[in-house]
Amino acid sequence: MSSIENPSPLPLRWAGVVLAGGHSRRMGREKALLEVNGEALWRRQERVLREAGAAEVWLSARPEQAWATAEASGRVVHDRVVDAGPLAGIAATLAASTATHLAVLAVDLPRMEAAWLRRLSAACGPGRGAVGRREGFFEPLAAIYPREILVAAERALARGERSLQRLLTAEAARFAIVEIGAMDAASFENWNEPPASGEARRQA
């Protein structure tokens, strides 16, 4: 368990990726294009990653998401294993990037701020990432992965496994575990269903 009071930037070169390749079935529309304070969610998350210190920012999207290729200011990456969830997006980005670490941020976490990623980055080191944990479960979609995790991720995908919880449990030695307190819990609230009228526009 790590307790970080005065985090400092990660002294290693790290990339960031916005995971935006989900099908948004429960939402009924493209989550990445919902707006928060006039800013599309995917753009907001790219900005958060840059503010946190990412040297490069990727957007993980499906090939048919034409808006991603047309509008993304960062680099676009497509899953090499189709319909395998966030694990496939993480593996594809790690394979495409040359950075030592990859900060992962799901597109549907509209309350997440750069401060959390900076806190995680302070716990990272060579070959070691950082992930939050709450009530015994990892929060894998706002975490930092070392590139050394790529082999384990690809092997899991080859076996047909998609669980990030299982991967993180098996590879826990490669991560600093940062306990998520009550003050941080709201940052992990996600959008899986249509927000109430006007909510998408008002969220901070």
Features:
alpha/beta; metal ion binding; nucleotide-binding; molybdenum cofactor biosynthesis; 22% strand; seven-stranded mixed sheet; 204 residues; 8 helices; Probable molybdenum cofactor guanylyltransferase; Spore Coat Polysaccharide Biosynthesis Protein SpsA, Chain A
What is the CATH topology classification name?
Spore Coat Polysaccharide Biosynthesis Protein SpsA, Chain A
Q: Approximately how much helix is present in the residues?
A: 25-40%
How many alpha or pi helices? 8
Note the overall shape: globular
Give me the secondary-structure topology.
Layout: E1 14-19, E2 35-36, E3 39-40, H1 41-52, E4 56-60, H2 66-71, E5 75-77, H3 86-96, E6 101-106, H4 114-123, E7 129-134, E8 137-146, H5 150-158, H6 164-170, E9 175-179, H7 182-185, H8 199-202
Parallel strand pairs: 1-4, 1-6, 4-5, 7-9
Antiparallel strand pairs: 2-3, 6-8, 7-8
Catalytic activity: Mo-molybdopterin + GTP + H(+) = Mo-molybdopterin guanine dinucleotide + diphosphate
Enzyme class: transferase
GO molecular function, one term: GTP binding
Structure overview:
- This protein is an alpha/beta fold and 204 residues long.
- Helix content is 31%, strand content 22%.
- The protein is built from eight helices and nine strands.
- A hairpin with a 2-residue loop joins strand 2 (35-36) and strand 3.
- Helix 1 packs across helix 4 (114-123) and helix 3 packs across helix 5.
- It is globular and about 40 Å long.
- The model is unreliable at 1-10 and 196-204 (pLDDT under 50).
- InterPro entries: MobA-like_NTP_Trfase, Molybde_CF_guanTrfase, Nucleotide-diphossugar_trans.
- Its EC number is 2.7.7.77.
